[in-house]
Design goal:
The chain has about 150 residues and is of the alpha+beta class. Helices cover about 20% and strands about 55% of the residues. The protein has 1 helix and 7 strands, in the order αβββββββ. The N and C termini lie far apart (about 85 Å). The model has no long low-confidence stretch (mean pLDDT about 90).
């Protein structure tokens, strides 16, 4: 009889502990299925850069995709385009195009930031311009037009 009472007390204590831990445990389990997001880049110029002042002027580009969850940031894709003369960049109609797929994005917890840095170089003088965009939650596709 004492063994049965001790057994039932142990089972009851286990049930109480399990119930107390179930809310934090359920909160940490993610039932949402991860998705993939497609990001399309177009690198172009809408200036001719035909003036002789631009003969030695070049630009290089670095594009980075960062996945953000809360305070945690992780780089999930990065590409650096080699420097080329400004006059060699194509127009929008012939833009340098790239499509990237980022998988394992939990839409309710993650967002993607697409950041880019253009480094202009003219006769040894450099200047950097930075910009970016956020791929909206719920969106499966994002587009970024980068004007050199």
């Amino acid at each position: 009889m004492k063994k049965n009472i001790l057994l039932w007390l142990a089972v009851g204590a286990a049930v109480v502990l399990l119930a107390a831990w179930s809310k934090p445990l359920i909160a940490t389990i993610n039932f949402e299925k991860p998705v993939s997001k497609n990001i399309s880049f177009a690198v172009y110029t809408n200036s001719s850069y035909s003036s002789s002042v631009y003969n030695a002027a070049s630009a290089k580009l670095q594009v980075t995709v960062v996945k953000v969850r809360g305070n945690k940031r992780s780089t999930v894709w990065q590409k650096e385009y080699d420097a080329k003369l400004l006059k060699d960049y194509p127009s929008l109609q012939n833009a340098l195009a790239q499509k990237v797929t980022i998988s394992n994005v939990v839409d309710s917890k993650d967002h993607l930031e697409v950041l880019y840095t253009i480094t202009y170089n003219s006769n040894g003088s450099q200047i950097q311009l930075q910009d970016g965009a956020v791929v909206a939650k719920g969106a499966k596709n994002g587009n970024l037009f980068i004007n050199i």
